[in-house]
Structures are given as structure tokens and as C-alpha cells.
């Protein structure tokens, strides 16, 4: 038995490699990637990557690090969207701050378990400090709680479940429960409603004004109508920065309506929330403190790597009531001096120390550069919105409230939707910038979403030039633009 254990130990020690060699090659690869980041494409439109992984199955023997880095380069880093690129202007760009990568590295190497205070009080206190900072930014008073999640989807799901339980909705109650939102609500909330067992609830899409914002008076009238019909108005969901168009609902007015009818008031500020750090945009978020819950995504407005969301709940007891469970094998961990643990406030028990990727850059750089970058993105979006209108036959949407705007070209002949789809295809084929599209009122629209911390004036000028060039190319093409 001893000989067998020693033999296995000898083989298993391969998991403790000589670090200098693989670390040097890996960091050299990372430095090369970052050194060329302003000269690489934002989108690779060629065949999707990853096909050669079938030629490299997981086997008994290892592969040298040089070959593995080569596979990553060819099959991952040069395929699809280059989310780290300055030209990433599609969807809502994520960040990728270098200091965050260092935080992730330290979190992974030290492997601190951040789910329970007993296991790593320092890690939990660090994350709770971040929750406190965000809650104070929103305007919550004492008694709140929150959680750092993998992103807005899980944060919104946690909020919906908490709202359901706080209002004590049972299965038999759901067919009479009513949820209020707009057509601009993020689809992850529709998924959350379904996953939370609320698919049978009534979903009311409240009409929007000409800037795609919820109309509070119509919300009030719809709630009154539903109450008169014996239904149970329960959940009001407002958006603070929609993905499609960057619209911010009138949060204070919507919140006052929600509160007057005892509805749970949830705000999805995953995209727009951190713009409330800027004095010039604080007015858009007036009323955020009325919410019972709010979601923010640091991997958007704070430029962190993907996988960093946040949920804040005004009354911590609601989070605890939905998510606290005591298991026998965890009987040692709940001590009188313990702070709130993430595992007691969310669906996650196993939890990566993701707070370090947020804390380290905030402390290293201070808030000043973050605010400057956010203000720059607002200005760049306004600049794009102004300059794109200098192109003849361009139609734009309303002036951007945040850092998203949309446009389309109106051809003199043929179908506009087809023309703009072809225009977007040519932008993708070029690849130096990446833009995405949406459809509103059956109109195919191209979006400019400015939120990468690497996007600067040269990036926007490049995008404008690519758009102009490809419009002219399509105008001269013999390819018909009608369906």
C-alpha cells in the first residue's frame, strides 16, 4: 500500500510544475497580446475558431505550454469578437482592465474561498466593503445587503426570486400576479421570470415615450385597471440604461407609482448604473434609492473582465429569507461575530473570490480615472451621434442619454433593412471595428455602443470612416437592396 501511494504521489506531483518556465511564456504571450491590442481587429469574420480542438483531445499525457499557447492564439484569440479591442462598439462592451487580471491571478493562486465568512473573513469583508460602496452610491440607507455575481443575468434572477418570496407568492397566486416593464427590458429578466416559476404571471409591457422610456402615468393607469379586474400588481421593473438604445426610465416617477401600490420595485442598471458616479448624469438616477433591489454590472461600467455583476437589496432580511440555509456539515461556520456571507445571500455556495478583480483596480487607480473614462465614453457617443448625421441619408434615433445610439442609412432605391444588413456585414468583414444591430418597429438599425475603456477618439473616427466607405461601396454595387 505504501509503495502504491508513493508511486501515485510521484506521478501526481506533475500538478506542481516548475513555474518559472510556464509563467514566463504565458506572461510573454499576454504582453504581446496587449502590445498589439490597438492594431488588432475587433472582429474576425472568418470561419469560427475552435475547430482544431477536435484534433487535440484531452488525453493521459500532457502537452507543452508552447503548443497550447499557439492553439489559444489561433483558435480563441483570433476568432469572433475581440472584446479587448478599442474598436469593440457592439452589444455592451466588457472591459478587461489589466489590474483586474492581476486580481484574478492572485485570487486563483491563493484560492481563497469567498463564500463563507468563517473560511475567509478577509475576502468576505473585502467584498462587503464593495457592496457598501455601491449601496451608498445608489443611496440605500442602513439595513441593505448585496452580492457579487457572475453578471447581470444571475443578479437579476436572484432579485426576482427575492421579490417573489418577499411578497409570499405561492403557486396558486401566480396566475393573478402582474409584472410591469417595457419592451426594452433586458431578455435576461424574461428568463429569470420563467426560471423562478413565474411564467403564468401576467406581463404588462407599458408604452414608452419617444425616447424609449416608460410612461409613469400609463403604468399607474394599468395598475388601476388590473386591480379593478381582481389581479395582484406585484413587480415593477425599470431600466437604467437599456441594451438596445441606452434609455433610462424616469426612475423616481416610476418608483413612486410602484411604492403607492405596494409593488416590489426593481431597477436593472446593469449597463447604466455606474454613470451615476458622474455629476452630469446624477439626475437620470434620481429615485434609484426607492428601489427594493437594483442590479449593476462592474464588468460594464467599471471596465472589469466579464463575470462581474452585483445585486443590491434595500432590506437584507429579504435576501436572507430567500437564500439562507443551514447544512449540518456547515454547523461550525456561523459564529456570533461573523459578517454576512455571500453563500447566505445568493444561490452560490461555491464562490470564486471575484471581489479582488474589482477592489484591486479601484484602490490602485482611484476613482478619478474611472470617472474620466466614463465621461469620455459619453462624449465619444455624442460625437459619433453628431458626425454620423453629416452623412447624407442617415437617420438617427433620439440623442443618447448614455453611451449607446443607433442609426440607419435610407437608400434612394431598394429596401432599407436589406441595405443596412449588408452595410453591417461589410463592417464585420472589415473587422477593424465591431458593431451590432437591433430591430425597432420593424426597422433594422445599427448600434454604436461606446463603453470599452480602450475606445478613444481615433476609434470613433475610424468607425465613421468605415461606415462612409462601405455606404459608398454599396451604393455603387449592382447587388439589389430589395428583399
Question: What features would you describe in this structure?
Answer:
Helix 9 (251-260) links the parallel strand 6 and strand 7. With 483 residues, this protein is an alpha/beta fold. A 7-stranded mixed sheet has the order 3-9-8-7-6-4-5, sandwiched between helices. A 4-stranded antiparallel sheet has the order 10-11-13-12, covered by helices on one side. The chain contains 15 helices and 13 strands. The N and C termini lie far apart (74 Å). Mean pLDDT is 94; it is low at 479-483. The relative contact order is 0.14. The chain is globular. It has helices at residues 2-12, 19-35, 65-77, 98-110, 121-138, 152-166, 187-195, 216-228, 251-260, 298-301, 316-323, 356-365, 367-388, 416-430, 457-476; strands at 43-44, 80-81, 145-149, 177-181, 202-205, 232-239, 264-269, 293-296, 309-313, 394-396, 404-409, 436-440, 443-449. The protein has 2 domains: 105-365, Aspartate Aminotransferase, domain 2 (3-Layer(aba) Sandwich); 367-476, Alpha-Beta Complex (Aspartate Aminotransferase, domain 1). The longest helix has 22 residues, at 367-388.
Amino acid at each position: 500500500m505504501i509503495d502504491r501511494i508513493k508511486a501515485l504521489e510521484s506521478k501526481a506531483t506533475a500538478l506542481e510544475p516548475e513555474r518559472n518556465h510556464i509563467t514566463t511564456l504565458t506572461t510573454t504571450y499576454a504582453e504581446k497580446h496587449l502590445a498589439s491590442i490597438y492594431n488588432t481587429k475587433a472582429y474576425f469574420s472568418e470561419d469560427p475558431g475552435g475547430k482544431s480542438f477536435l484534433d487535440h483531445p484531452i488525453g493521459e499525457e500532457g502537452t507543452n505550454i508552447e503548443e497550447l499557447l499557439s492553439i489559444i492564439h489561433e483558435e480563441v484569440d483570433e476568432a469572433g469578437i475581440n472584446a479587448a479591442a478599442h474598436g469593440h462598439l457592439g452589444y455592451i462592451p466588457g472591459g478587461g482592465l489589466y489590474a483586474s487580471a492581476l486580481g484574478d491571478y492572485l485570487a486563483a493562486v491563493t484560492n481563497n474561498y469567498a463564500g463563507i465568512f468563517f473560511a475567509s473573513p478577509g475576502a468576505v469583508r473585502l467584498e462587503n466593503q464593495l457592496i457598501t460602496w455601491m449601496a451608498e452610491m445608489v443611496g440605500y440607507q442602513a439595513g441593505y445587503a448585496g452580492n457579487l455575481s457572475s453578471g447581470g443575468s444571475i443578479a437579476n434572477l436572484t432579485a426576482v426570486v427575492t421579490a417573489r418570496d418577499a411578497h409570499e407568492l405561492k403557486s396558486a397566486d401566480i396566475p393573478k400576479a402582474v409584472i410591469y416593464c417595457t419592451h426594452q427590458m433586458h431578455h435576461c429578466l424574461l428568463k429569470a421570470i420563467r426560471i423562478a416559476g413565474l411564467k403564468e404571471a401576467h406581463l404588462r409591457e407599458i408604452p414608452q415615450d419617444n425616447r424609449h422610456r416608460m410612461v409613469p402615468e400609463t403604468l399607474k393607469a394599468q395598475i388601476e385597471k388590473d386591480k379593478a379586474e381582481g389581479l395582484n400588481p406585484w413587480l415593477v421593473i425599470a431600466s437604467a440604461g437599456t441594451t438596445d438604445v441606452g434609455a433610462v426610465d424616469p426612475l423616481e416617477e416610476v418608483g413612486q407609482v410602484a411604492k403607492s401600490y405596494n409593488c416590489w420595485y426593481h431597477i436593472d442598471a446593469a449597463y447604466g448604473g455606474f454613470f451615476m458616479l458622474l455629476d452630469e448624469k446624477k439626475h437620470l438616477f434620481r429615485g434609484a434609492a426607492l428601489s427594493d433591489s437594483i442590479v449593476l454590472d462592474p464588468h460594464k461600467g467599471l471596465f472589469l473582465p466579464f463575470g462581474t455583476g452585483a445585486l443590491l437589496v434595500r432590506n437584507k432580511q429579504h435576501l436572507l429569507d430567500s437564500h439562507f440555509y443551514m447544512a449540518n456539515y456547515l454547523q461550525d461556520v456561523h459564529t456570533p461575530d461573523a459578517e454576512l456571507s455571500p453563500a447566505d445571500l445568493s444561490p452560490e455556495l461555491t464562490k470564486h473570490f471575484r471581489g479582488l478583480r474589482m477592489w484591486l483596480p479601484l484602490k490602485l487607480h482611484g476613482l478619478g480615472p474611472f470617472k474620466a473614462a466614463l465621461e469620455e465614453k459619453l462624449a465619444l457617443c455624442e460625437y459619433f451621434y453628431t458626425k454620423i448625421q453629416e452623412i447624407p441619408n442617415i437617420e438617427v434615433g433620439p440623442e443618447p442619454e448614455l453611451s449607446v445610439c443607433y442609426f440607419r442609412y435610407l437608400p434612394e432605391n431598394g429596401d432599407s433593412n436589406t441595405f443596412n444588413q449588408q452595410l453591417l456585414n461589410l463592417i464585420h468583414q472589415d473587422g477593424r471595428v465591431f458593431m451590432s444591430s437591433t430591430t425597432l418597429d420593424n426597422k433594422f438599425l445599427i448600434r454604436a455602443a461606446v463603453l470599452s475603456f480602450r475606445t478613444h477618439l481615433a476609434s470613433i473616427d475610424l468607425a465613421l470612416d468605415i461606415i462612409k466607405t462601405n455606404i459608398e461601396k454599396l451604393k455603387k454595387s449592382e447587388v439589389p437592396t430589395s428583399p
